[in-house]
Design brief:
The protein has about 900 residues and is of the alpha+beta class. It has a 20-stranded antiparallel beta sheet, sandwiched between helices. Strands 21, 22, 51, 52, 53 and 54 form a 6-stranded antiparallel beta sheet that branches. It is built from 18 helices and 54 strands. Strand 4 (about 145-150) and strand 5 (about 155-160) form a beta hairpin. Among the domains are: about 1-30; about 30-50 and about 100-200, Protein Transport Mog1p, Chain A (3-Layer(aba) Sandwich); about 280-510, no CATH class; about 605-690; about 700-800, Thrombin, subunit H (Beta Barrel), CATH 2.40.10.480. This is DUF3352 domain-containing protein. It comes from Hymenobacter lutimineralis.
Length: about 900
């Protein structure tokens, strides 16, 4: 071959390659990849998300993030994400990588009793492609993983597996679109769809809808109803499949928008009707949707209610009903079935144990109760049933003597009643069950008024649902716990038990399908709503109910304690503890929901303490005669409450904190210089039963742990300061005297040793004295002048890191000094009583001094320059407020009490007007 020909062929090859590259970039690559078209058509659910930072924030605000983070699957994802961060020398790399990409996650059945997930993540830049490649290379170098590649139909598949158990993921890049799954079979299905372009997408019926463009939407969910029954078979026993097929009979697929909002998760969208000839939709087509009228007879112990609102419940029967024993029975059944109208429902009642089968009822509405009672009597006589009946309140239970009566009247979806059967009638509603034992608790609840329409919580829930619906599924996750445990396959029960907190996060769940006014044509879709709801701020108490207002929460009785903020992991706003005048302690979640309430035997004494017991955080509170400890769910810790001796009236409570080796110690001030020391197991420690001092304490004592040793510092009004050990002995160098009376606690700077631990006090003669726990006075200087009746108090900030000093004179003048001794502000008040002062310091000059005037019941807020914030005061009927700083809004969030109301106000730091904010 000549050199000229060789050069010509090489140039031709280069030109062809260049042309192919230009064609790919200008023609193929310019066409965006339709991620929905890559989803295999056997997907059960497809979740699409876009704004992931906002989604994570909403999950944290609704506390769902805490529940999801406890799942083993998400813990594994988090662990792998942290590993990638360490390998790539970055933080939160996964969240930044996802950013605002449209990510699809689909659920697929991959075998008997198993399912897997398929993820699609677009790669928008070359940098992102390099990040993926760098992460794979880093994992290949890690001894824990094995990275391998193979070719499948022209595509390179990369597998990342753990060497120990072989688990891992497989992924490949299709036109800068990353396809990931732990099941290689799903990856191969995607490649098969790529090889056969033109196939209908799973979202083809919704190609013109993009809910993610709406501002309040966090995600979209595609539901393939035809795949739901086999998917539920993965979890539940086969006998429950007929109930699941009701949804399959009404719709074939649906697209929903997902919104996380406060105490609920809301999904709205549309469902395409099922087009199969014998589908349920075809039998009820054209019948108007109905109201849930039977709420007046649905028991509060209902676990699951599957409600069908159709004009003619008899249309639910198929063309081949169960054969009747004789013609008289068949005639009675036909006459009875024609009397039913508007509503039919299958109801499961709560079971006391998973080992016990739940009571199952079929409720159906009749137009003429008298006629139905007569027909039921004719049916019993035709069957030769006994005329005897059982009375429950004003109602009667009769035996039928015929199995599967509901299925004979209403179709196979109401089957599963193989016993002789029992029936009861309550007004316009007839209830069928297997035996009288199933009807008895339901009738007892109806007679006692324990029904949905009498429950404020349930009424509030029903008001948020659709008033008219063709199909409604109601689930109470509290009542249905044992029912679901019994219905689950044996191998799935452990998973539900591990995820109990997540399952019960939203106790009220409903799914509803509402038909269109005109059901013919493309517009004849079902409006679909799925609502997962946690009961809002309405709780029953001994004195009334709690209601939500736009400016806060209104309690049945006035609040008597300042709000206590409780930091909650992954929540934007804190939780709140508050006590009312009925001595009921309430915990309000960051969403403004009353999580729990408990009645104490008296008013709170001292501040609420955080104390971890049994490995979980909790709250330690005291009343004059008892000490309580609650976890975040409101459950009492073991051995609590602790009952103090009859001679003790607690005036203060401090704690040592738990160190894991021994129980925490509780130091209770009993008034008059008496102190008692207990541990959280209820043991009284010797030397403290009680420890009696000659003078009254100037303030609650300080319980310090220095170098593993307990140090209990007690400041007395006469100016003497004691430091005791756990046995009640006095530390060397103590007591010490500051030379003047005290009216304040100390500001503590704990160190690793007694000598390096410093405490600062201010005497009533205006001297600031600093001493250490070796008993030496380190520094003494005069802070201010004093006159008779002047009081000085040290006010630490919310984290005990800095402090201010408050000087109050009998003339009503109040002066605040900072830690350096500089005068911060001076204010003259008309009233002369002592003013509660609080100090908040959030760094970078964000300081706030709150002064509460008990007379006019107003609180004054002063900034770091001593200026009254916004030249405005706020009402406060208790002796304190709480404040946090919102950096994004450049404003203080003020929590204050006004009578029966707990309010949160956003107070801007730049002179703008305050804004009332809901407690969520």
């Amino acid at each position: 071959m000549s050199n000229k020909l060789l050069v010509f062929l090489a140039g031709l090859l280069l030109l062809t390659a260049l042309g192919s590259y230009v064609y790919y970039r200008r023609t193929v690559a310019q066409v965006p990849v339709d991620a929905w078209s890559l989803v295999p058509d056997d997907a059960v659910l497809v979740l699409a998300t876009r704004d992931h930072p906002t989604l994570v924030r909403h999950l944290r605000e609704t506390q769902l993030w805490d529940n999801l983070a406890a799942l083993p699957y998400f813990q594994q994802v988090e662990e792998n994400a942290q590993l990638l961060d360490s390998l790539t020398n970055s933080r939160h790399n996964l969240l930044r990588f996802l950013g605002r990409k449209t990510v699809l996650a689909s659920v697929h059945i991959t075998g008997p009793g198993s399912f897997d997930l398929l993820y699609q993540v677009p790669l928008n830049t070359v940098r992102e492609y390099r990040q993926v490649r760098a992460a794979a290379e880093a994992l290949a170098r890690h001894p824990r993983f094995r990275v391998s590649s193979r070719t499948y139909q022209g595509h390179v598949l990369t597998a990342v597996q753990e060497r120990g158990n072989g688990s891992g993921v497989t992924y490949f890049n299709y036109r800068n679109h990353l396809i990931i799954s732990s099941n290689p079979g799903l990856i191969e299905k995607v490649i098969a769809r790529i090889g056969h372009p033109g196939q209908a997408s799973v979202a083809a019926d919704f190609r013109n809808i993009d809910y993610l463009q709406l501002r309040e939407v966090d995600a979209t969910l595609l539901v393939n109803y035809r795949q739901l029954p086999p998917f539920l078979d993965v979890f539940f026993r086969p006998e429950l499949r007929p109930s699941a097929q009701v949804l399959t009979g009404l719709g074939r697929n649906g697209l929903l928008e997902v919104q996380l909002a406060g105490n609920k998760l809301l999904m709205n969208g549309f469902t395409n009707p099922e087009t199969a000839r014998d589908a349920l939709h075809q039998r009820v087509h054209g019948q108007a949707a109905q109201r849930l009228g039977m709420a007046e007879v649905v028991s509060l112990r209902t676990a699951v209610l599957m409600h069908l609102g159709v004009e003619q419940p008899g249309s639910l029967r198929t063309g081949r009903p169960l054969a009747a024993p004789d013609s008289a029975t068949a005639s009675a059944l036909d006459s009875l079935g024609r009397q039913f109208t508007q509503e039919a429902a299958l109801c499961y009642l709560a079971a006391p144990s998973p080992r016990q089968a739940p009571a199952r009822l079929v409720l159906v509405r009749c137009q003429n109760p008298t006629r139905v009672a007569t027909l039921l009597g004719q049916l019993r006589r035709a069957l030769g049933a006994s005329p005897a009946f059982e009375r429950v309140g004003p109602y009667q239970i009769h035996s039928l003597g015929l199995p599967e009566v509901p299925a004979r009247l209403l179709g196979p979806m109401f089957g599963g009643f193989p016993a002789a059967g029992a029936v009861a009638q309550v007004g316009h509603y007839v209830a069928f069950a297997d035996d009288p034992a199933a009807l008895r608790p339901w009738l007892q609840d109806v007679a006692a008024g324990n029904v949905w329409t009498r429950s404020p919580t349930q009424v509030a829930f029903l008001q948020e649902t659709q008033p008219l619906a063709r199909f409604s599924l109601f689930l109470d996750t509290q009542n249905s716990w044992n029912v679901l445990l019994r219905g689950l396959r044996e191998e799935r029960r452990a998973g539900l038990l591990r995820n109990e907190t997540l399952f019960k996060r939203f106790p009220q769940v409903t799914l509803q399908l509402v038909p269109a006014e005109v059901e013919e044509g493309p517009a004849g879709q079902y409006f679909t709503q799925i609502l997962l709801r946690r009961p809002a701020a309405t709780v029953a108490t001994q004195t009334g109910s709690l209601t939500r207002e736009t400016s806060g929460l209104r309690f049945p009785t006035p609040l008597t304690s300042p709000p206590v903020l409780v930091s909650v992991a992954n929540a934007r706003t804190p939780g709140i503890l508050a006590q009312d005048s009925a001595h009921v302690l309430h915990y309000i979640t960051p969403e403004g929901i009353i999580a729990w309430s408990d009645t104490l035997n008296g008013p709170l004494v001292g501040p609420v303490r955080r104390l971890a017991l049994g490995g979980s955080q909790g709250f330690l509170v005291a009343t004059p005669s008892r000490v309580y400890h609650y976890d975040v769910q409101g459950r009492a810790a073991p051995h609590f409450p602790l009952n103090l001796p009859d001679s003790v009236q607690a005036s203060s409570l401090v704690t040592s904190g738990a160190d894991g080796r021994q129980p925490a110690r509780l130091l209770v001030g009993g008034g008059g210089g008496n102190f008692f020391l207990f541990d959280t197991n209820g043991n009284a420690l010797p030397g403290w039963q009680p420890k009696r001092l000659d003078f009254a304490p100037a303030a609650p004592p300080h319980y310090l742990t220095i170098g593993g040793s307990d140090v209990l510092v007690v400041l007395l009004e006469n100016g003497y300061i004691f430091a005791f050990d756990r046995a009640g002995g006095t530390y060397p160098g103590f007591p010490i005297s500051v030379g003047a009376r005290l009216h304040t606690a100390a500001f503590v700077e704990a160190g690793p040793t007694l000598q390096r631990s410093r405490l600062t006090v201010v005497t009533q003669q205006g001297e600031r004295v600093q001493f250490n726990l070796s008993g030496y006075i380190l520094n003494r200087n005069r802070l201010s002048t004093w006159t008779r009746g002047t009081t000085f108090r040290i006010i630490p900030d919310q984290l005990q890191r800095s402090y201010v000093v408050a000087r109050q004179e009998p003339t009503g003048q109040l002066t605040i000094f900072d830690a350096a001794g500089r005068r911060l502000l001076t204010r003259h008040f008309l009233t002369a009583d002592e003013k509660p002062v609080q100090f908040f310091d959030y760094g970078s000059g964000r300081r706030l001094v709150a002064i509460t005037d008990p007379g006019p019941q107003q609180v004054y807020l002063f900034d770091a320059k001593g200026q009254l914030l916004n030249n405005q005061t706020f009402p406060s009927t208790v002796g304190g407020v709480q404040a946090t700083y919102d950096v994004g809004a450049n404003a203080w969030q003020l929590y204050h009490v006004q009578g029966r109301q707990l309010k949160r106000v956003l107070v801007p730091n730049d002179g703008r007007l305050p804004l009332a904010a809901p407690l969520r």
